[in-house]
Design a protein that fits this description.
By secondary structure, this protein is α/β, with parallel strands linked by helices. Helices cover 54% and strands 15% of the residues.
Length: 670
């Protein structure tokens, strides 16, 4: 609704009563004037008709049509009379002038006195005497004119005959056609004069009201503009008024004083805010710099942090081989291995979060086969699900999505691991996918304990774990979902959660559909992503070369391989490898660390040197503590198997067997 100003309010309050009164009075007087004009026209017409009837009595009686024609022409010359017709009592036209009106068929009934009820004739006669026979006229009216029918009766008729039920003889009828044009023109002229006079009067009144209201509205308008400016923050606004109204002057002065105080207070407050903002900005920058330095340090030092843990895992595996006949020592080694596994999981999670926070992980977006991806995830967790007596159901599909296969697999592995951890025994975990528009929706559903709405807000925070006595969460670190959240945002995918206490949880990842994948590309992706079946064979008589600049890792790896029956050669640098080659050493398999010191070549160069010297594609494994995409890309381009520290001995053994069986296969292992 549109608002109006105070000036308009004052004007309307002053003009509205005058306008209502003027319109009401003018309407009333115009109506009365128009009624009088119509009545005057009717009375004048009846008088003319009566006089014409009296003048035509003799002519009608004597059937003197020439005489009657003169009378008709004379009457037609009068103002507003358009036509005159004189008829005899039989309805025959004796004379006419002007526009001849149509003669109605019931004309005799209109003017015949015999049609009047005898009981009403006494009253009829009295009215006739009072009206001087004018009552005998019968009229019809429309917007264009007035038509009168007046009987012609003899003037010598005995009026007393009516009392004796004697009929009044009728000699004929006079018909007048009267025009309303002049009357309507007078009405229109009167209406326009009245309207113009009213408008002039109201305009003059409004002008004087407007001029009188300026002394009030102008100061108030300035006060309103000043208040609006103050509301917009312009505290330097001041009101300057010239008015003789004391109340408005006092209001303006008080507003100026209040504005000055507000301006002063705002200056002080702004200074305080600026000081506090500067201090907070400095603290924020320091905190961000410290957090970034921490994340950057952990990301850069990933290799050095993983190195001793990798060596520890190798020594534990070797120790487990040597104490296989002692049950007590076997249990002790198993407990140490569990501790190493937990420490490895925690270190990997912390390093992954640090790399994500430091923005050193660059996703390699490419088409990925959902079928192969889900099969790999299911294969990794079937054993764990069987241990907890949980049904792990996989419903794969044959679609392709656009994502980083390793990062997406890490997301699903964390979700499945989390679902198995929080699902009680005899429960169920399902991995399914379905297409929604231009996206594939991968869901991990479980029949676990569920998550409350309050916990759903914090579930993706670091080190947050659900506390529920129904499930064993000792192995949970509270970092899996935090990593999932960071990876999903890094890939540009969508993560959704639906859960309720006691009804399980559904984690859904939505990724875009891969387009332009032909049949040849599908076959290549399937052959690359589908897991290969490995055939375990003895490693006895296998000649292996181990290269690592860390003496602890080198010794641990060599001892572990030796316990598997391998013949092992060790070297700490490319120079030592070349010396062994000069001595005639050859190998069936190469295990080399990627980073071999600041002044030495890397593991890729070591592998290339051995292959060149032996003149064949010697299968190899490249081990690195650096999980950046650069190392992954280099390993993939050169056709090397890649493992990240710390390496599980079982995975190392499985990959050696697989590589010896299929030396030309290309694979990246996270």
């Amino acid at each position: 609704m549109k608002r109006i100003g105070i000036r308009s309010h004052v004007a309307w309050l002053s003009i509205a009563p005058l306008l209502i009164m003027a319109i009401t009075l003018e309407s009333f007087f115009l109506h009365e004037r128009f009624v009088d004009m119509d009545q005057d026209l009717l009375e004048r017409s009846e008088l003319v008709a009566h006089q014409l009837a009296a003048s035509s009595e003799y002519g009608v009686f004597s059937n003197n049509q020439a005489f009657l024609q003169d009378i008709a022409r004379s009457a037609q010359q009068q103002p507003d009379i358009r036509g005159v017709v004189i008829l005899n009592k039989a309805g025959k036209i004796l004379a006419s002038a002007g526009d001849i009106p149509d003669i109605p068929k019931d004309l005799l009934a209109r003017t015949n006195l015999a049609a009047i009820n005898p009981l009403d004739r006494q009253e009829f006669t009295q009215i006739k005497q009072l009206k001087n026979d004018a009552f005998l006229s019968n009229s019809q009216s429309d917007i264009y004119g007035l038509r009168l029918y007046h009987p012609i009766v003899p003037t010598q008729v005995d009026l007393g005959g009516l009392e004796q039920d004697r009929d009044i003889p009728r000699l004929g009828t006079v018909i007048l056609e009267i025009s309303k044009l002049r009357t309507e023109q007078l009405k229109t002229q009167t209406l326009w004069i009245t309207v113009l006079a009213t408008l002039f009067f109201l305009s003059v009144s409004f002008y004087f009201v407007y001029r009188a209201g300026l002394n009030i509205t102008r100061p108030i308008r300035r006060l309103s503009e000043a208040v609006q400016a103050i509301g917009e923050g312009k505290l330097d606004s001041r009101v300057s008024l010239r008015t003789n109204i004391d109340e408005i002057s006092t209001l303006a002065q008080g507003m100026n004083e209040m504005t000055a105080l507000l301006q002063e207070e705002r200056t002080i407050l702004q200074q305080r805010i600026d000081d506090a903002t500067q201090a907070l900005r400095a603290k924020k920058e320091w905190a961000e710099r410290a957090s970034h330095d921490k994340s950057r340090f952990l990301a850069v030092a990933s290799h050095d942090l993983r190195q001793p843990l990798h060596a520890l895992g190798l020594y534990v595996a070797e120790l487990q081989q040597r104490v296989s006949n002692d049950d007590a020592l076997q249990r002790l080694v198993g407990q140490v291995e569990q501790s190493v596994e937990a420490l490895s999981m925690l270190l990997n999670a912390l390093l992954d979060i640090s790399k994500l926070d430091a923005n050193v992980v660059v996703p390699q977006m490419q088409p990925c086969s959902l079928k192969a991806l889900l099969q790999r995830v299911a294969a990794d967790y079937q054993a764990l699900a069987r241990i907890k007596n949980i049904r792990l159901i996989i419903r794969p599909c044959s679609g392709y999505i656009t994502s980083d296969p390793q990062l997406l697999e890490r997301i699903l592995m964390n979700l499945v691991s989390n679902a198995i951890r929080y699902t009680p025994k005899n429960g169920c975990v399902m991995i399914a996918c379905r297409r929604r528009g231009n996206c594939w929706r991968i869901e991990v559903r479980d029949s676990g304990v569920g998550i409350t709405e309050i916990d759903q807000i914090n579930i993706f925070r670091e080190f947050f774990r659900l506390s529920n006595p129904q499930v064993n969460t000792d192995n949970g670190l509270g970092l899996g979902l935090s990593i999932v959240d960071r990876l999903v945002k890094l890939l540009g995918h969508t993560l959704k959660l639906h859960s309720a206490p006691g009804k399980g949880s559904v984690f859904a990842v939505e990724a875009p559909v891969a387009i332009n994948i032909d049949r040849r590309g599908q076959a290549a992706l399937q052959s690359k992503e589908e897991p290969q079946k490995t055939e375990i064979s003895p490693l006895a008589k296998a000649r292996l070369l181990v290269v690592d600049d860390d003496a602890t890792v080198l010794t641990g790896t060599a001892n572990l391989l030796a316990s598997w029956g391998c013949k092992v050669s060790v070297a700490a640098s490319l120079t030592e490898v070349e010396h062994l080659l000069q001595n005639g050493e050859t190998w069936d398999f190469i295990i080399s660390d990627y980073q071999l010191g600041d002044n030495n070549a890397n593991g890729i160069e070591v592998i290339a040197t051995v292959r060149q010297h032996q003149n064949k594609q010697v299968p190899c494994i490249l081990i690195s503590g650096d999980t950046s995409q650069a190392v992954l890309k280099l390993a993939s381009v050169n056709g090397h198997h890649l493992l990240h520290k710390p390496v599980k001995p079982a995975k190392l053994k499985s990959l050696i067997l697989h590589a010896l069986r299929d030396p030309t296969g290309l694979e990246e292992v996270a």
